[in-house]
Amino acid sequence: MIVHDFTHENSILNQFISELRDDSIQKDRMRFRTNIARVGEILSYELSKTLTYKDKKIHTPLGKKEMSLIQNQLVLCSVLRAGLPLHQGLLNYFDAADNAFISAYRHHRDNRDAFEVIVKYFAAPSLTNKTLILMDPMLATGKTLENVLKALKAHGTPKQIHIVSVIGSQSGVDYVKTIFPKETHLWIATIDDTLTSKGYIKPGLGDAGDLAFGLKL
Question: How many angstroms separate the first and last alpha carbons of the chain?
């Protein structure tokens, strides 16, 4: 796996990540969702540099100009529900892409630390020979992405896979490296060192789904 980690790069990305983490700012749900989308836009721009381009002649009111345009057939796939703001950020840039959605959630049996990831809903176009961009804002243990990858197999084999995340744990990143094809790209704004006993990123930012959309039962 090719990891593009922006943890130690100074850019406006740091401002958005700091606001996502800050417990006095993240209470503003609209700002939280907007910052997730902003991170998605920045990572989209960086990801776009690795895609395939072809020259096309563009007609303007005053003449003609050759422009280099993306040729990849993109499919954006987000993990519900936390992935929705991130999905919007990527869709703002890759607006012609097809879209897929998958529900994957943790089930802690008897409130124990151990959990299983359950996938119940998946809607996607054919992925055969497409460029698949998987979005999960929190790459904690990597188990969610593992189960998403399994579910994707029924929809064809992508030509290339990109993963986009906001915050990950080092152990989660290391785990997905063993699961996904070696030519997969991971685009991640920042990586934290620690996971709690229940598999949450520390210091992280909390539950991204709850912060974006409110508490769930």
Answer: 36
Q: What is the DSSP letter of 110?
A: G
C-alpha span between 135 and 174 (Å, rounded): 17
Cβ atoms of 40 and 208 within 8 Å: the answer is no
Pairing of strands 160-169, 185-192: parallel
Residue 118 lies in a domain: yes
CA distance 106 to 115: 6
Instruction: Please indicate, yes or no, if residue 181 is contained in any of the structural domains.
Output: yes
pLDDT in tens, 3-39: 999 999 999 999 999 999 999 999 999 999 999 999 9
pTM (global) more than 0.70: yes
Would you say residue 62 lies in a domain? no
Q: Distance between CA atoms of 75 and 55, rounded to whole angstroms?
A: 22
63 belongs to a structural domain: no
> What are the pLDDT digits (tens) for 142-185?
988 998 888 888 899 999 999 999 999 999 999 999 999 999 99
**Residues 175, 197: Cα–Cα separation, whole Å:** 16
Residue 140: count of CB within 10 angstroms of its CB: 25
Q: How many structural domains compose the chain? A: 1
CATH number, residue 160: 3.40.50.2020
Structure tokens at 208: 């991204």
